Amino acid sequence: MQELEKIIWISIILIVIISVKERVKLALPILLVLVGLLLSLTGLLPTIDISPEMIFYVVLPPVLFDAAWNTSIPDFKKEFSKISILAVILVFLTTTIVAIFVHHVLPGFGWGLAFVLGAIVSPPDAVAASSITKSIVLPKRLIVLLEGESLLNDASALIAYKCAVVAVMTGAFSLWDAGWQFLYISLGGVFVGIAVGFLFLKIYAFLRNDSNVETFAVVLLPFATYSLSEHLGFSGVLAVVILGMYLSWHSFAIFTAASRIQMGHIWDVIIFILNGLIFLILGMQLPSILADIPSPEIFPLVCYGFLIFLILVAVRLLVLFAIPAFSFSRSAHTMGIYAESGKEYLILSWSGMRGVVSLAAALALPFTDGRGLLIEQRSTVLFVSFVVIIFTLLIQGLTLSRLIKLIKPVDKKIEDEHILNLLLLDRSISYLANIPIRGHLTESAIKTMVSKLEAEESELIDGRVEPVMLAEQIAQKGAYLQLELSLVDYQRRELADSYQKGRFSLEIIRKKELELDFWTATILQEMKRFGAASIASDIVE
């Protein structure tokens, strides 16, 4: 009960933090970690003990599923070779180099524990990546690479971590066995993800009539898939990622419009709550982590943590530089560091924030080895891991947005959206031209619809050809949307007045209210698309 009360109070603090986020101008994960550290140092709230099971079985599945669901599979396939280098080769190389450093520098660290620490800090965090990139405007290709890396690198790092823990527990390590174990765990996770997705699509026919049941089943699915895969000895991370991609690929055909809208809203709330609470609680872990560290050792260990942070940055810089697509090509040399390849290289190199998965792996390290002997360096592993996480979040997280604003990568999202709109309009006009005409009313309806679509197509083409006119059209569209929003607001006030005077039943009122809500959401989406969101505050009263 006490833990529940703590979570309630922390949730209230989370709401307060988010309400002032825009004034502080910090990425939400960074702000939450800072507030968590402040709360832990001042002792204003008791520390919440965070268990590895809570992160692995409660936080990770929905976050990975949501990220996989929103990953473009064609783009993922196109960049798969680069994503594999980042998610597998970079992780193993980072683990090895950190292990060599730790073994030779930190007192009492054998090769087993050194590789454990290397595996813990090697993967950039999926939660941190998705949270920070969502708040920053980036080119599509960069987002695909960053989020694709974060989807797969947890699996690589956790498998390396398990092999290193086995070496600590048994005192023996076989590279051959570790390689086979990696393949077995990875391929098993992929198989589980596909199998669960396939079975769900077969069962889904019985759920189609109830959007509430559909939504609940989809929300439950990543938790069940992760648990099943882990119990079978496979990678739960890969199982959930493959499941999310599999269902996302088939979502256009199987889910109803009502289900997609409902799922979208619910997933937004779930991810919002998990991301917020986990980063706030992450910052609050400092007192419990410091408890087992002697005071004279704190500063040297912080220095070691900073050196490991520098190693992580250097290894990532070098590996990305070695990939031809990210290195400074001939055109980049001639155009300078602000060429597009140079911009991508800098942003990717500086996007290596660590987070909750690394902390969970450190917390999951056993207290004793296979012979029952105490692992004396466990508290050191935990503290150094926490220090590295904080350095990456604060140094890289705080400066990443400024780096992006400085080098200004080209984002073709608006142009792509324009092309897609033209494509859909052109295909729609062709579709209507081939519809069999059945009676005068059908013919009249088709002509009206074709005229409307042709007018929209003409407006888009004219706006694309004449940029000056496009700016004028955006201003006109903004004024129209402002008027439309004020009209919805007026109707909502009239609706409330009618209900309060008892003229209509609540059922009819709620139905109309829902229509107005959808209308408002559509208007706000249009405002966002046209860059006219700022006029929302200027609604005519």
Distance between the first and last residues' Cα:
47 Å
Counting DSSP E segments of at least 2 residues, the number of strands comes to 0
Q: What's the alpha carbon Rg, rounded to whole Å?
A: 27 Å
Tell the overall outline: globular
Low-confidence stretches: 325-339, 465-469, 532-541
Q: Note the main sheet.
A: none
Helix-strand pattern: HHHHHHHHHHHHHHHHHHHHHHH
* Number of helical elements: 23
Provide the helix percentage: over 70%
Structural class by secondary-structure content = mainly alpha
Name the beta content range: under 5%
* Overall pLDDT score: 78
Descriptive account of the structure:
Belongs to the monovalent cation:proton antiporter 1 (CPA1) transporter (TC 2.A.36) family. The chain crosses the membrane at residues 28-48, 54-71, 83-103, 151-176, 182-201, 235-255, 267-286, 298-324, 345-368, 380-404. The protein is mainly α and 541 residues long. It has helices spanning 2-19, 21-24, 28-42, 52-69, 73-78, 80-105, 111-121, 126-134, 140-170, 175-203, 211-231, 236-254, 257-283, 286-290, 295-322, 330-335, 340-349, 356-363, 378-407, 413-433, 440-465, 467-500, 506-529. Helix 4 (52-69) runs antiparallel to helix 13, helix 9 (140-170) packs across helix 10 (175-203) and helix 18 packs antiparallel against helix 19.
Describe, in short, the structure shown.
The protein is an all-alpha fold.
Please give the structural blueprint.
Blueprint: H1 2-19, H2 21-24, H3 28-42, H4 52-69, H5 73-78, H6 80-105, H7 111-121, H8 126-134, H9 140-170, H10 175-203, H11 211-231, H12 236-254, H13 257-283, H14 286-290, H15 295-322, H16 330-335, H17 340-349, H18 356-363, H19 378-407, H20 413-433, H21 440-465, H22 467-500, H23 506-529
